[in-house]
Amino acid sequence: MDKNVCAYYRTSSNTNVGNDKDSKKRQQHSVRTYAQSKGLNVVNEFYDKGVSGTLDVLNRPS
């Protein structure tokens, strides 16, 4: 049975954000490949652009 899941992507530097960059694309490919192999259905995706991983989750922009 498939389970519905959400995916989360993050790019820490604004220099890696944009249609001409591949950071998000690589992350999406990895997540989607993994999800498919485990019978997971990605129903929503979230992307934090230019947000450092050192910033506490509760203090990140919404």
TrEMBL record:
GO molecular function, one term: DNA strand exchange activity
Disordered: annotated segments: 12-35
Pfam families on file: Resolvase
Classification via InterPro entries: Resolv_N (IPR006119), Resolvase-like_N_sf (IPR036162)
Xref: SUPFAM superfamilies: Resolvase-like (SSF53041)
All residue ranges annotated as the Resolvase/invertase-type recombinase catalytic domain in the record: 6-61
Family matches, as Gene3D superfamilies: Resolvase, N-terminal catalytic domain
Name used for this protein in its record: Resolvase/invertase-type recombinase catalytic domain-containing protein
Natural source organism: marine metagenome
Lineage: unclassified sequences, metagenomes, ecological metagenomes
